[in-house]
Amino acid sequence: MQTTTSRSYHFPVLDLLSLSDVVKTVRKGDYLFYEGMDAEELYVIRSGLIQISKITVDGKELCLRVCQTNDLVGELSLFTNHSQYMLNAKALMDSEVVVISKTRLEEALYQNPTLNYEFMKWMSEQFRRTFTKFRDLLLYGKKGALYSTLIRLSNSYGIQTDEGIFINLSLTNQQLANFCGSTRESINRMLSELRRKKIISFSDGKMVIHDIDYLKKEINCENCPATICRIE
User: Which CDD domains does this entry report, sorted A to Z (predicted)?
Assistant: First the structure.
């Protein structure tokens, strides 16, 4: 078996880890920060999984990505006063993060042009990935949101097998619904339809996508780079 794609671009975190030796533990289900909180810190995940999400106007949770070891968490408005977090960050399992203050980060970026360039490159990718996720939701509705999410999962956690693409990540239907900004009931119906058509199946609680081309065709997939079309 082989993974379907390589990992996306990662910021050279060692340059950031030298800015702090403060480590924070976040228990499963607890929030690292909320949308609207004052943004004073950036975080590097040392272990665990952190879900980045946004609450929609109708109160649904829209999961944008799942971050893991060595990922950066906490989009900051740098060099501005009174910046706030635009998203929520919740631990999906017990996690540890290295805490980097906004002030220390700003000083380092000002003094180190290479670090500044790498940070801007990382921020640009995060904005592009978030934009494409919202684009899929707006253009293709609930079905498109689900199909897009399955394609993103295949790029992030997919392992190519003789049967199809094995998604090496256990997700409940409610968690899938959160990725789509939908309800669990709607996701149940759409997954049942895909199973009936033999587009997907489940093995030991994990999904196998048998016909990824069907999903791409249904949403007029633009074949964005796999570094952008991802969950993590």
Answer: CAP_ED, HTH_CRP
Closest listed residue to residue 53, CA positions, set 128, 173, 119, 134 = 134
Q: Please tell me whether residue 222 adopts helix, strand or coil conformation.
A: coil
Torsion of CA 217, 222, 227, 228, to 10 degrees: -110
The half-sphere exposure of 6 on its side-chain side, counting CA atoms within 13 A, is 4
For Cα atoms 209, 210, 211, give the angle at the middle one, nearest 5 degrees: 100
Tally of helices (H runs) and strands (E runs) in the chain: 6, 13
DSSP code, position 165? E
What is this structure's pTM? Answer: 0.74
Diameter over CA atoms, the chain: 58
3-class secondary-structure state, position 38: strand
Please give the C-alpha separations between residue 178 and each of 45, 56, 212, in angstroms, as whole numbers: 22, 10, 21
Assess contact for 97 and 45: CB atoms under 8 A: yes
Return d(Cα 153, Cα 158) in angstroms, integer.
7
Taking the C-alpha atoms of residue 87 and residue 58, their distance in angstroms, rounded to an integer, is 16
pLDDT in tens, 29-73: 999 999 989 888 989 999 999 999 988 777 778 888 888 888 888
